[in-house]
Specification:
Layout: E1 2-5, E2 8-13, E3 16-21, E4 24-29, E5 35-43, H1 50-69, E6 77-83, H2 100-103, E7 110-113, E8 116-120, E9 122-123, E10 128-129
Parallel strand pairs: 5-6, 6-8
Antiparallel strand pairs: 1-4, 2-3, 4-5, 7-8, 9-10
């Protein structure tokens, strides 16, 4: 398994030259050599938004185009959005209203919408960590 952080893609998709920096690109071959891919984007917002889903959808098209251009076969490409999520009691507040103290509370949850999965970041005072799915 290979995990790339912030790889830059520069690909032509549908006649348009697209360039973007993915946050996380995980490439893994199974025991039969089939390639599976996970594209994940990290956000500091309290929820996954439509524009986040559009961004990873563009990354999906870019990675697909790049693989086709180089003749690389693959199985699935999964998409993910990692977001901070609100601290307890912050559900009604927007990002600007959240204080630094509340941002440092520990949170962990997961959601899924269509083919894009979303994970909240878990934060402590010393570190931010993410649990990515293993399947």
């Amino acid at each position: 398994m290979r995990v790339l952080f912030q790889p830059r893609l520069d690909v032509v998709v549908g006649g348009w030259q697209l360039r973007g920096d993915l946050d996380i690109l995980r490439l893994e071959r199974d025991h039969d050599g089939r390639l599976s891919i996970l594209i994940a984007d990290m956000k500091s917002s309290t929820s996954a938004k439509v524009e986040h889903r559009l961004q990873v959808a563009f990354y999906h098209q870019m990675v697909t185009g790049l693989l086709q251009e180089h003749g690389i076969e693959h199985e699935s490409i999964r998409l993910g959005i990692l977001y901070r999520g609100p601290a307890d009691g912050d559900e009604g507040l927007d990002d600007k209203e959240l204080s630094a103290d509340r941002r440092s509370t520990t949170r962990h949850s997961a959601c899924s919408a269509s083919t894009t999965r979303c994970w909240r970041l878990s934060r402590t005072r010393t570190a931010t960590w993410v649990r990515l799915p293993t399947s």
